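Figure 2 data, in text form.
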Amino acid sequence: MAGSWGCPHEINGLCQKVNGLTCDPGMKDCVLYGRYIFASSKKNEHILQKQARRNDVAAPPVSKADNDAKER
């Protein structure tokens, strides 16, 4: 079963959301930008940055009770 997707912002090949530019799914300011992985690595820069920030989140602080137990 084949499927397809049609963007509601694309009319006659032009994106109505991105100033009437030629529709290029995943381009900057597209509703798909940064939400999905694309074959083009240039379109994936934003999502990779988001994932890197998510991985850099600091670990939660250790409670005083945990610290005291480690010192004994």
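Caption note: The first helix runs from residue 45 to 55.
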